[in-house]
Amino acid sequence: MKKIGRHGVFWCLYILFTVGIYYVQEPNLGLHITYELASLPAKFLTVYATLYFILPQFLLKKKYGLAFLQFAILLIVGMFFLRLLVWATVYPIYFADLDTKLIPSNPTKLISPLLDLIIVSSIAVVIKLLRDREKQQLDHLNRAKSNIQNELQLLKSQLHPHFLFNTLNGLYAQILENPEKASNMVVQLSDLLRFILYEAKESLVSVKEDLECLGNYMALEQIRYGDRLDLKHTILGNTVNKKIAPLLLLPFIENSFKHGISKDYEKCWIRCEIELFDDILMLALENSKPSFFEEDRTENGIGLKNVKQRLEHLYPQKYDLTITESEDRFFVHLKIPLENK
């Protein structure tokens, strides 16, 4: 309804403007209003065919030759249609004493309706292009705002609170039993928090530092689960002089613990392999699935949704993500481009 209203306002303003222009030249208000109303169907045809066919199908696709040809044909059809409408309505009322033919013997009489169609179509196209540009800018701002919110939400939820509580409890136990191991845990936790709170604020970080963050996280979790967890973590390829958006991989690693391993009280396992090529990083992540597994759809769904939105924002149509599950395991395969320093 808003769109119909905007179009109605446009045509009312256009009629008022043209009637005012013609009235200055010839003060016959009824003639000019009748002419504009009679010619509206031809102008509707020309304007809307231009806006919704020629503009999107040819002009915006840079097919300028076809656009010009289509518009020229449309103008010729619209011009004769307008001439027919005026000849059937305006002339019998205001020029009944003139012997006027539908097709004038003087071709210059067709210039006026032709200019009318060109002017109104040009005005409509300019307005639409300006509105489309404004809409694109607004959509871009909304997407940017949404991406910022998603990234903030993602960063805030990177480390599950239970991870911190359990790590601190484990640290307390290690202080009593193995002070040297506890000291290493403090260093790992400190490095992990420093990276997340400070380094990850940058748009790109060193691949080496990002993978060290993953290593610290998994090392702390390994201490927590002890012999119950069989964890294998391998990195293949060169991490030097490569950059990546921070904390893209951590949600998947955390997810494998939070929604798989933590729910299994028997022997469980995780296999994490990261392979680096010149400008590509590939993550292959597998973990065991509890036989009594019940998916936490609310929390898990939001986390994965945020990750996918962030990937789409950072690497539109340049990444590949596959998440599958079978009866006894979960599998994640991620492929993303890297930046070289």
From TrEMBL:
Keywords: Coiled coil, Membrane, Transmembrane, Transmembrane helix. The chain crosses the membrane at residues 7-25, 37-55, 67-90, 110-130. GO terms for molecular function: phosphorelay sensor kinase activity. InterPro entries: Bact_2-comp_sensor_kinase, HATPase_C_sf, Sig_transdc_His_kin_internal. Residues 131-158 form a coiled coil. The keyword Transferase does not apply. Residues 151-229 form the Signal transduction histidine kinase internal region domain. The keyword Membrane applies. This is Signal transduction histidine kinase internal region domain-containing protein. One of its GO terms (cellular component) is membrane. Gene3D superfamilies: Histidine kinase-like ATPase, C-terminal domain.
